[in-house]
Structure formats: C-alpha cells, structure tokens
C-alpha cells in the first residue's frame, strides 16, 4: 500500500511547530512516531496536505523525576517507558501498559503522546479504501450513517489505546501547548467521548508533556488487557486500577478505568465505591466481584470489534477483577513507597 | 436561435472565468501553489552513505527496495502488523513500512544485506541455516535482524525472553520452534 502524497515539515523547535500548526490547521497532521497515522494514511482515512514530524523537535522526549511528579515528554517512546525502572517502581500500571502495547519493533518508535491521542477504531472504519467505499461514508468519515449500529444517530467507534487508561488511573495530567499559551488538564479531559471526533484537542494544540503525580503514602496500580494473540494487538478489553491508602490504613482513593469501553477511556466511579473506605486486607472477593460487574456495566459495547459485544462486556469484568486483585495484592504485601 | 444560445453560453463561461480570481481568497491561492517536490535525503545504510532524491511520502521500506534494490527487506502487510519489513535503526528493530525515508536521515540503518562481512555469514544467519529455521524464508530477514538486535542487548537469554523478543515477527509457516532453537544456539555460540 502506498502513502498519499503530502508535503513534509520537520521543525526543530516547539515554537516553530506551534506556528506551523496554527498556520495550516486542518491541512496538517502531526506525526510523532508514525506507527498509527501511517496506517491511517495508507488506508486514506486521513489525507492531509502537510505532515509535520516531531522527530527533530528538541525538548520533547525523556523521562524526568521532579519533587512531586514524574514528567514524560510527548515523544518518549513506549520502549523507553517500558524499560524505565523509575516508572516500574512508581506506576506499575503505566509500565505494564507500555510493555504490552503492540510489538517490540513498534514500541521502539511509537510515542506516548501518539498512543494517548490515537483515533478510535471500528471494524467498518479501519479497513482499506475499496471495501470501505463500498459501504459508503459513516459518521467518522463525515457521512450520515453508522454501519455498526444501523439507524443510530452517532458514531460507536471504540478507543483502543493502552496507555491512556493506565495514565488516567494514576491521575496523570497533560500539558497542552499552543502559540502563546498552555493549559494543563487531566488526561481524561483529552477525550470528548464522541466517536466521530474522539480527541479533544484543537488543531493548533500540541500535547507536550504528561505529568504523573507521586502520591505520599502507600499506593498500587495495575493494568490488565485481553488480546486474542500475545503480541501486535489492540486490547479487546482492558482495565487499569489505582489504589491509594490514606493515613488510617484505609483505601481512600480508588480509580478504575476501562479501555476499549467506548469512544474514550471510561472512569468507572460507581465501581470504585465497592472498594473504597476498606482496609486492603478486608476487601473480600465479593467486593472485587461487585466492583468488576459495576465497571462492566459502565462500558459501552456494540458489535464493531473482533469479538461480540456481550463477550467483551464479560471480559471487561474479568480484566477489572484481575487488575483489582493484582493491585490489592501489592498493597497488602509491600505497598509502593511513593 | 442556436447560434444565439451558443453565444450566451460562451458569455456565461467567460463571466465565470473572469469571476474566479475575485472569489478566491489568499489562503486558497496558497494551497494551490503547493507542489510537492522531491527532497534530497542522505541515508546511511549498511555502513555506506547514499544520497537520494525522493518524494516525502515514500516509506523507508519502499526506498530500500525500489530505489536502492536492497530487496532483502521484505514487504508484506505494509501496515505494521507482520514484521517482515524489520530493519535496524541505530541498532534497534523497527518497521520500515511505517517510517518515512525523509524522517530517518542521520540514523544508522542496517538491513539483512549488511550483516554478512567479507562474504562470511553472521553467526545468527549460520545458526538459522544449521537449525533449519528457514521454511519459505519470507520472515527470515526480519527474524534475523530482530534476533541480532536482541542478542546485542541480551547475549544470554532464556527461551521465554527469545519468544518475547520475536513476538512482533510473524512466521506464517509457523516454524517458531526452529527459529527459537537457532537464536538459542547463536547465543550459546557467543558464550
């Protein structure tokens, strides 16, 4: 498959990048690692006039530890995150998510920002041009129909990124820059929740950093993902869990995030209530089971991925259960020193 | 009558043409002026320097095969799923079908052609031959390069580590056992 023709831009500074982005807006797409957008370009799902590569932009890559947070630069590769002892010690969920994403050769190139800001997917949308054109344009291609749910008024594509659920679970913040200003938002706010346009960034905005807060006291996190084969797969169900123990030895904060659960990662707040306020050793199997089934209820599933929606809903419960069990185990045993 | 209608049509056509420039905004004019040109790219492949003039939409895999005729690098799915197009970029395995050739300037690229030295096969290549780790051979260049990069960083791996390292390379003859044996043998030879 060939790529469509485009003009290639390769700035070296963030300032220059932002100027180009605000100048060309809709005509430009940003390429960080390029492992996701190249496929979409080849399928003609996006045909920009300009491709801007971030590979030569200084000051966007690297993992640095600060007083109360760990900062991951936007173009840090997934391999770097997976190999980082710092991330493994403090944020097991993020470490595990980057270790399980795609395949080794893709992780060597794919970046954290690219993984977080990837487009939502659907079996009807993510296919090559010819069969797709036979179906006619769906909502995601500015059409007026959804092939997955006939007669629906909106797009049901699914966000299948690995990193975002893990990052949201640990309460990560994202720094978004545009010419002359920047804003810092929780990672969950980068998603609109709309399938046709799932990423809530303007065309002149660039995600430059992701900040992971280091929590005082004991905390633990875990990530679980289901795939049909061991590698090179998007998750068909995934769950990230974060537990934080307050001073009294109670679990005070619980964050359960589902991936592959709709047009963006889903924070299951109801499910968290089944666990919070208890000591780690007092959480029973029934509590975990209840949290898992509540989490699965929060997800949105239609038949537009490899497995039927009913089965994916069951898988989501299992993944939540496993992630919770893993996080509880590490909290009971040692607890993270963070 | 007909002549008059023709004249009217011609009049309208000239009207349309003369109106066009006024309607076009400056922005549209800028877009129209975009002509995509070939770019000069200096690539370093298998310890040799190449200077090429290529369109920016060409992937590294395409350039290697079509421009430089280094056809040892295979192309199969061309969307990053199979791993046959694996090359080494500064020593790390990457998918050449997902990288733009203009974007890898200044990096050291190694293809399967660059492994043998002075006509002598690389130890991993020899191990693949000795252990019958090649069936149809299509995944072999990618497998060997992935194995090389892996053994460079982890010279004495366990079988599980080997399987994990080649998890991104698909062999549709499913000859994984022989491939893992060959990599294991190559690692033991280096001991």
Structure description:
The complex is a heterodimer of chains A (338) and B (191). With 338 residues, chain A is of the alpha+beta class. Helices cover 31% and strands 20% of the residues of chain A. Chain A contains twelve helices and twelve strands. Chain A has helices at 14-24, 37-42, 78-83, 85-90, 92-100, 104-107, 112-116, 129-135, 163-169, 269-273, 285-298, 309-333, and strands at 7-9, 28-31, 50-53, 63-65, 69-73, 173-178, 181-186, 206-213, 219-226, 237-245, 251-259, 266-267. In chain A, the strands form three sheets. In chain A, strands 4-5-8-6-7 form a five-stranded antiparallel β-sheet. In chain A, strands 9-10-11-12 form a four-stranded antiparallel β-sheet, sandwiched between helices. In chain A, helix 2 links the parallel strand 2 and strand 3. In chain A, helix 5 (92-100) packs antiparallel against helix 9 (163-169) and helix 11 crosses helix 12 (309-333). The termini of chain A are far apart. The mean pLDDT of chain A is 95. By secondary structure, chain B is an alpha+beta fold. Chain B has two domains: 2-114, Beta-grasp domain (Ubiquitin-like (UB roll), Roll), CATH 3.10.20; 123-189, Orthogonal Bundle (DNA polymerase, domain 1), CATH 1.10.150.120. Chain B has helices at residues 2-23, 26-32, 60-67, 123-130, 140-153, 159-165, 176-189, and strands at 39-45, 48-54, 86-89, 92-95, 108-110. In chain B, strands 2-1-5-3-4 form a five-stranded mixed β-sheet, with helices on both faces. In chain B, strand 3 (86-89) and strand 4 (92-95) form a beta hairpin. Chain B is elongated and about 90 Å long. The termini of chain B are far apart. Classes of the chains: A alpha+beta (338), B alpha+beta (191).
């Amino acid at each position: 498959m060939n790529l469509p023709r485009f003009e290639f831009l390769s700035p070296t500074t963030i300032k220059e990048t932002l100027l180009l982005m605000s100048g060309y807006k809709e005509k430009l797409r940003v390429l960080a690692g390029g492992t996701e957008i190249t496929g979409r370009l080849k399928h003609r799902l996006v045909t920009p006039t300009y491709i801007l590569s971030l590979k030569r932009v200084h000051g966007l890559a690297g993992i640095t530890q600060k007083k109360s947070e760990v900062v991951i630069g936007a173009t840090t590769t997934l391999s770097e995150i997976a190999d980082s002892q710092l991330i493994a010690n403090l944020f097991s969920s993020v470490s595990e998510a980057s270790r399980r994403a795609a395949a080794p050769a893709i992780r060597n190139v794919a970046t954290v920002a690219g993984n977080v800001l990837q487009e939502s997917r659907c079996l009807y949308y993510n296919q090559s041009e010819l069969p797709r054109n036979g179906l006619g344009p769906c909502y995601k291609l500015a059409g007026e129909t959804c092939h997955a749910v006939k007669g629906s008024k909106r797009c049901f594509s699914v966000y299948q990124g690995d990193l975002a659920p893990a990052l949201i679970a640990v309460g990560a913040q994202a720094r978004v820059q545009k010419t002359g200003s920047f804003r810092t938002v929780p990672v969950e706010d980068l998603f609109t929740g709309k399938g046709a346009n799932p990423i809530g960034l303007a065309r002149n905005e660039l995600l430059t950093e992701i900040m992971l807060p280091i929590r005082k006291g004991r905390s633990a996190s875990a990530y679980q993902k289901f795939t049909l084969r061991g590698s090179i797969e998007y998750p068909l169900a995934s769950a990230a869990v974060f537990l934080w123990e307050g001073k009294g030895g109670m679990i005070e904060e619980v964050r359960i995030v589902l991936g592959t659960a709709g047009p963006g990662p889903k924070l299951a707040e109801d499910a968290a209530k089944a666990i919070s306020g208890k000591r780690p050793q007092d959480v029973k199997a029934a509590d975990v089971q209840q949290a898992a089934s509540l989490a699965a209820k929060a997800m949105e599933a239609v038949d537009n991925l490899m497995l039927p929606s009913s089965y994916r809903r069951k898988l989501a419960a299992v993944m939540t259960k496993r992630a919770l069990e893993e996080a509880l185990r590490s909290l009971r045993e040692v607890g993270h020193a963070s | 009558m007909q002549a008059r209608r023709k004249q009217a049509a011609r009049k309208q056509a000239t009207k349309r043409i003369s109106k066009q420039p006024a309607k076009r905004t400056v922005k549209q004019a800028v877009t129209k002026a975009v002509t995509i040109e070939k770019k000069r790219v200096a690539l370093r492949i298998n310890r040799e320097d190449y200077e090429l003039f290529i369109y920016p939409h060409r992937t590294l895999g395409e350039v290697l095969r079509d421009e430089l005729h280094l056809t040892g690098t295979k192309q199969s799915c061309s969307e990053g799923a199979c791993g046959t197009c694996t090359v080494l970029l500064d020593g790390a395995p990457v998918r050449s079908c997902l990288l733009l050739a203009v974007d890898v300037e200044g990096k050291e690229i190694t293809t399967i052609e660059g492994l043998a030295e002075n006509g002598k096969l690389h130890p991993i290549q020899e191990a693949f031959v000795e252990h019958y780790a090649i069936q149809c051979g299509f995944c072999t260049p990618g497998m060997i390069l992935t194995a090389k990069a892996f053994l460079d960083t982890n010279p004495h791996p366990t079988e599980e580590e080997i399987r994990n390292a080649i998890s991104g390379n698909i062999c549709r003859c499913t000859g994984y056992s022989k491939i893992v044996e060959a990599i294991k043998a190559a690692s033991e030879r280096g001991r």
